[in-house]
Write a structure and sequence with these properties.
Layout lengths: L1 E2 L2 H8 L8 E9 L10 H11 L8 E4 L9 E4 L5 H4 E5 L6 H13 L9 E7 L6 E8 L5 H11 L23 H11 L2 H13 L14 H11 L24 E9 H11 L3 H19 L8 E8 L13 E8 L6 H20 L5 H6 L7 H14 L7 E6 L7 E2 L2 E9 L8 E8 L2 E9 L7 H15 L1
Length: 473
């Protein structure tokens, strides 16, 4: 039996009619490397059928525990229907990037069907470039960034001819627990809830200011006091996120924009200034967001606060799927006009964030969640997000994530992967997400925003390029 962790369940709990918990990726594929020079839905279904034994999460569906007494389970879907999950659509002429982005935004705005395995895949034809787009959509309860990369690694090959597939590690069988069995197991576990919370207490409470529960009134004070009492003298952040146009309650609809920057140019700037690639990425994101806020007369005097997801997955947890992450806070120096000064401050701030990360327990988010009984977990999680937009300041303003990827050409069903743009999540209080993935010499940016809060997001891509040019000078 495979039960969701409290962190996996949190991504289910955040879902409302306005916000969804699935992530995705927009792959651009060149079919000219295939023997028949075409790529369609049938070819992708054939690839998936061959590799399904290596992809057990694609066959898992959700099973809720009666009365919500415990976290849900993954069970094998005996009626799994691949044709339902793999779909094909075409863009009207001319098939521009903006038309593609609009279609992606509409698809991402729709929730996944919880009665089926929590993923969908769309083959999108009609691009004016002649390429084919493939949009994947999978729930964050199933994967995080690292386990998502594992899944893509199983679908992609080093050559158009494909490869000999490895043998599946384990059978990936999730089981078929009955409702009665899950209920009995949950009732037996009820007396253990207080013990689980007590075990988590020494790790969670002194560090609660580094979790989503930091939005609760007094959380920071409790964290500092218990830290002193327990001798936890780790570096602490005094960041407080100001309110902006994208700090309110999100609507049910999304905007999406995508584009590329040259990785060699980013590395050249990194080398000249003695910083990291991530420092450069975060700094140019700050510059682009600063321009957007100035354009809308909404620039705060203080820096914004970015949520930076950090993987804590160990080598022995590879192939286990689910979520192994920590959510760190970093200042986004939108308050600094000069690009060089902003880059230097970003380097210093991200260095401080790394020091804080080293001092935090890897299971912090799960430990913090253990204080909320599963029966009220969903309501408590949604209340935390509501507090972030209604009382005081939000915990974070936006998400910025930089995911390093392979620097060699890859192929899917024989078609060359030209780009892989992330399509991520926004929530109440964080109506903007900028995620970038490096691949084969370029950096692929995917920007997701709330449709009502930020009607214009394509300008951010132009400004990212201009900010990089400023640093090159």
């Amino acid at each position: 039996m495979r039960q969701l962790t409290s962190l996996d369940a949190q991504f289910l709990a955040l879902e409302t009619p306005r916000q969804s918990g699935h992530v995705g990726g927009l792959a651009i594929l060149d079919p000219s490397t295939r023997v028949d020079k075409t790529l369609d839905c049938a070819a992708v279904r054939k690839l998936l059928r061959e590799r399904l034994p290596l992809l057990p999460p694609f066959r898992w569906r959700l099973a809720e525990v009666p009365l919500g007494l415990d976290y849900p389970y993954w069970i094998d879907d005996e009626d799994f229907d691949l044709d339902y999950h793999v779909r094909e659509i075409a863009l009207p002429k001319p098939g521009s990037d903006k038309q593609l982005a609009e279609q992606v935004a509409r698809i991402q705005s729709r929730p996944l069907d919880r009665t089926r395995p929590l993923w969908e895949l769309y083959i999108i034809d009609g691009l004016e470039s002649g390429h084919i787009a493939m949009l994947t959509k999978i729930h964050h309860a199933v994967i995080d960034g690292m386990s998502g990369a594992e899944i893509m690694g199983l679908l992609l090959d080093l050559a158009p001819e494909g490869r000999e597939l490895p043998a599946p590690t384990g059978d990936g069988y999730a089981g078929r627990p009955s409702s009665v069995g899950m209920l009995a197991r949950s009732l037996l576990g009820v007396p253990r809830y207080p013990l689980r919370a007590l075990r988590s207490l020494p790790r969670a409470v002194p560090n609660v200011d580094e979790t989503p529960f930091a939005a609760l009134p007094g959380a920071g004070t409790v964290s500092r006091i218990t830290g002193r009492l327990t001798g936890n003298n780790r570096p602490r952040s005094d960041l407080r996120a100001p309110k902006t146009r994208f700090s309110g309650r999100v609507s049910a609809h999304r905007r999406f924009a995508f584009g590329q920057l040259d990785l060699a140019e980013v590395k050249a700037v990194k080398k000249v200034h003695g910083v990291t690639v991530n420092d450069v990425v975060v700094s140019i994101c700050a510059g682009a967001v600063r321009r957007w806020l100035l354009e809308h007369d909404d620039l705060p005097d203080e820096p914004l606060v970015a949520q930076v997801p950090v993987s804590v997955r160990t080598s022995d947890q590879i192939g286990t799927y689910g979520n192994r992450i920590m959510l760190m806070s970093a200042p986004l120096h939108t308050d600094i006009e000069d690009p060089i000064e902003r880059l230097e401050m970003t380097h210093e701030s991200l260095g401080d964030m790394k020091e804080r990360h080293k001092a935090l327990p890897a299971e912090l988010l799960q430990d913090a969640n253990h204080f909320v009984p599963p029966a009220i977990f969903s309501r408590a999680a949604q209340m935390t997000f509501r507090l972030a937009t209604s009382v005081g300041r939000p915990t974070w303003n936006l998400v910025i994530s930089n995911v390093p990827g392979p620097q060699i050409p890859l192929y899917l069903a024989g078609a060359r992967l030209m780009a892989n743009y992330p399509v991520s999540v926004i929530t109440d209080g964080m109506g903007l997400n900028i995620t970038v993935m490096s691949y084969d010499g370029h950096m692929d940016f995917g920007i997701v925003a709330d449709r009502e809060q930020m009607p214009d997001v394509w300008c951010l891509l132009d400004w990212l390029a201009e900010e990089l040019e400023e640093l090159k000078r």
